[in-house]
Amino acid sequence: MLRYTLLRLLGAIPTLLLVIVLAFLMVHAAPGGPFDDERALPAEVAEKIEEAYHLDEPLPQQFMRYLSGLVRGDLGPSYGYRDRTVDEVIGFGFPVSLQLGALAMLLALVVGVGCGTVAALRQDSLLDRAVMAFAMTGISIPVFVVAPVLVLLLAVKLQWLPAGWSGETGAARYFLPVITLALPQIAYIARLTRASMIDVLSSDFIRTARAQGLGTKAIIRHHALKPAMLPVLSYMGPAIAAILTGSVVVEEVFGIPGLGQFFVRAALNRDYTLVLGIVIFYAALIILLNLIVDILYGVIDPRVRQR
Amino acid sequence: MSLLEVTELSVRYGEETVVDDLSFSVNSGESVGIVGESGSGKSQTALALLGLLPRNANLSGSIRLDGNELAGKSDEELDRVRARRIAMVFQDPAQALNPYLRVGRQLRQILLQHRLASGKAADVRVIDMLQRVGLPDPVRQFRAFPHELSGGMRQRVMIASALIAEPDLLVADEPTTALDVTVQAQILDLLETLRDSTALLLITHDLAIVAGRCERLLIFDAGKLIESGATTAVFSSPQMPKTKQLLAAAARLDTGPIPAPVSGETLLDIERLTVSYGKAAAQRLQAVTDVSLSLRTAETLAIVGESGSGKSSLVRALLGLVPPQSGAVVYAGSQLAGSLQARLSGQRRDLQLVFQDPVAALNPQMRVQKIVAEPLQVHERGLSSAKRRERVAAMLAKAGLDKSFLDRYPHQLSGGQAQRVGIARALILGPRILICDEAVAALDGSTREQVLELLKNLQRESGLSIIFISHDLAVVRSMSHRVAVMYLGRLLEVADNASLFSTPRHPYTKALLDAVPVPDPRRALQAPPLGGEAPSMLSPPRGCVFHPRCAYAKARCSEQRPELREFAGVRVACHRADEISLNARY
Amino acid sequence: MKKSGAILLAILLLAIVGPWLSPNDYLTTNFDGILKPPGLSGAHLFGTDDLGRDLFVRTMLGIRVTLLVAVVASLVSLVIGVTYGAVAGYVGGRVDAVMMRFVDTLYALPFIFLVILLMVAFERNFLLIFVAIGAINWLDMARIVRGQTISLREREFVDAARLVGVSTAGIIFRHIAPNLLGIVVVYVTLTIPQAILVESFLSFLGLGIQEPQTSLGALVDAGVNQMEGASWTLLIPATLLALILLCFNFLGDALRDFFDARRAP
């Protein structure tokens, strides 16, 4: 198990390096910069700025400088927010995004696995059909459609819930963003759970367990849940990426000062250091979470561990 | 009163009736055999007893246990009967055990569920049960996952799980079909000794298995019970034609003609062939080691061995599908290249193969006509399409299929029909050597006979040489002129058919022959089965590969590897071949 | 399956023919008639936007652009994915290990963010959108095709073909490719909605299709800004987008069931 974990850990390093190189190159190959808008900058001022941000150095040197900062956890200054470092922006925005994302993921897992299991146990019943129709709708309607429509309906028309974030303090402000973020994941996880649960329940070893008189509850708990959760576990990687992507939209629509919003603003303002920093931060996060998923997979499936 | 009383039981799926108006009973402590071909409804009956039929099944009639009705009861009510009163052993232990749970936990759960023991006491009882089914080191195996055990060990665990709650009736559905013949004998003996006062319902397609083990027999055909009675009576005076047919199909090692040896010229020579997989030395798996064999014109040479004996790897190397590590294959005087691509077109067309799984060997997207015509398209390009169609139809006719099969897809064929298509494809180029790799293993009794007959006829007509790979000794006996016995990648004995079956020279050959069940209630049980299981190919034993399981092994056998040598007209790899005398059971 | 296909076909036809039949075009602004509600009586079936442009024509144009981007992107991912997966699967061994290690690495990338980076760094052009979306979606296809190729390559009928002397090309084209077809069709059908999602996501953020061109995502984005007074500007494109995605997903599911049923004996 330890060997398996270490191997996975080692495997993650080249991935992270690749992201850093790709993102760095992309940013530096891009035409134009954040200071282009401030037209007709005096030559010496432009030089000063270039010097301050080390833009006058050759690319490999800039990269090494960036990398050595990265190792120390320093993502450099932000071009856009001139009095802040990238670290500070991430430190400010990420906790908000993390709260939303974690809540959405939790909700998606609980509701998705629950609905999927119930649907599988009552296969082809009315309930099953209803859950599956809902799930199909859920995966088909994008977050950026759900978010405004929910706002329009529940906040603007019915006025049950706050439409925005700023100015609100209670738990109510979490409601719409979290639901919006979780909805497609609930749908996807429910479909996945149902399919894999049906698959597992029709396997020979479940028939053996039934022949042993274990009863439905014990069969699900002791025999079926673990293997049925494997596809859901594999989906956690893409789900995390999808929730991060979704958070960009949700934060935009609800006006939440999270990392996603900073990212979009930075992208639109050509704040390259911030964009670069956030991309690398997100990449590291996704790689880390994928790593955890991989290790959990090894914990559940004894056959994977030995490979 | 009988323990189990089944009356007018029927199982239907929609319009289709798979069990039809079935009535029988089982007394306490009695052992009853249910025998029938696949699709005869025997497994459906077993599942019905425990209420395990799929939801779309329609059950009618009555199943009484000690007078209490089970049919139509809810799962909750049946759960009190399952394992505790009626337990079940399934066919394939690799599928029937949960791969994600440790063996001990799977057994423990049964005790907890039925409140038979808890805590430490449950663990102790599980370990005791594992010990009783013959698991070496049961304390350690308690924590093993199923995939860490061999097939035979898994089936022992399965039996332990069925007996741990001390049921009154044990239903065993083809419990040994997935196992090697020497292991099969062990498992059947284990069932017999452990069941004690538990009644046994043994379900099988093989009459030989029930011959010495069941007091009464029920013969199934197409969902109906067609004959029942005491085992001896059914064997000595079968009433129904189907029963007679089953008896005839239960091939035996003691009757029937043996093909006489042929004395043609040597057509194919295998010289010290070694096949291995894996590049790194530490992980190299030597599947075939130093095998030398020859095949004569119009001869059938059988290669027998259990799983892991290397017989399939040998075939793949012969055909050029795997390049051998060393050694040579000489065909008609010239050495064949190791890889198929490097062989001459004429050499390729002269060696053809018939596969084990007849349906998997046919491309599901192609019609029969196209499948059989493909070799012609490659080797006889000049042929017009009308001419080609004619040749295909003629070949199919030879293989026993009429023109209506030309436009079918593989999934529209039965197993026997698919195998005939496979044979037609292999023979359409007129090869001189046909290799049959377990070619009838997937076929039922009567279909198997027909395909074997077809092969014999084709050989008689065209002087075809056949290499016949099989684990089924009865089939080998009726088909082949000579037999080679393989174990852990090595040849242990090569002999004429008659001499191998009457006076085996290698202890392993003898053990193999002994393990084959005899379809005769008076002579079924004699020799104790071979103990243990074949070791892993990755770490073959030093010295003679068979010595750890051999009853005749001496110190020398564990140190020095015996060469294959001539002895009394056969070739045998045993140090003690001239010291020991082995006699077949017959 | 038939229903979803029919709806998709109807939407496609409408998107092609609609603007041609309408008296309006997608460019003309009319500041006297901004945010007109939809109605059968007026000249604007779907109403107008905040610049007074006809929303029917713009929505139809949006559908065209969205579908075009999605189909082209899916074809890009189809070509890359099938070739990559088939080569890795058929060649096998070390080549396969290296190729799939690379795919695994790409999988762990926060692609959508890199794409955003790409869209920001380089001018937002159509071509780039195709490439970017295709680059995301080929990974799944490659994995699936590789898995399928490996299992086909090990199947006995492929050995049978080799033994009767069929060439490698013959095996790939006659025996492997036809058996891959089903699964490829299914995954292309399921890739299209994925591509639509990415394109409309980018357009929604203002990083995709640029004014005065439009796509369903861009229309939803514009609609969000007007939704409090003119909800139709959001609801019409949002409904159509959801409907198209739903139909593709249903179609993909149905096709998968169809091919699964055929593969079973």
Count up the helices of chain B: 20
Strand elements of chain B, count: 22
Fraction of residues of chain B in helices? 25-40%
Briefly note the CATH topology name of one domain in chain A: MetI-like fold
**What is the name of the CATH superfamily of one domain in chain B?**
P-loop containing nucleotide triphosphate hydrolases
Query: Uncertain runs of chain A with pLDDT below 50, 5 residues or more?
Result: none
CATH superfamily of one domain in chain A: MetI-like
Estimate what percentage of residues of chain A fall within beta strands: under 5%
| Arithmetic mean of pLDDT of chain B | 89
What is the H-and-E element order of chain A? HHHHHHHHHHHH
Q: Looking at the chains present, what oligomeric state does this protein adopt?
A: heterotrimer
CATH topology (fold) name of one domain in chain B: Rossmann fold
Describe the protein.
By secondary structure, chain A is an all-alpha fold. Chain A is built from twelve helices and no strands. Chain A has helices spanning 2-29, 43-52, 59-71, 86-121, 126-140, 143-157, 172-201, 204-211, 215-254, 259-268, 272-300, 302-305. Chain A starts with a helix and ends with a helix. Chain B has 586 residues and is an alpha/beta fold. Among the domains of chain B are: 1-85 and 170-184 and 199-250, Rossmann fold; 97-166, no CATH class; 506-586, no CATH class. In chain B, the strands form four sheets. Chain B has an eight-stranded mixed β-sheet with strand order 16-17-18-13-19-20-22-21, sandwiched between helices. In chain B, helix 7 runs parallel beside helix 8 (181-195) and helix 14 (368-379) runs parallel beside helix 16 (415-427). Chain C has 265 residues and is mainly α. Chain C has helices at 2-21, 55-91, 93-107, 111-121, 126-153, 156-163, 168-204, 216-226, 232-263. In chain C, helix 1 crosses helix 2 and helix 4 (111-121) runs antiparallel to helix 5. Chain C starts with a helix and ends with a helix. Chain C has a single domain, classed as MetI-like (MetI-like fold). The interface between A and C is large, with 47 and 44 residues.
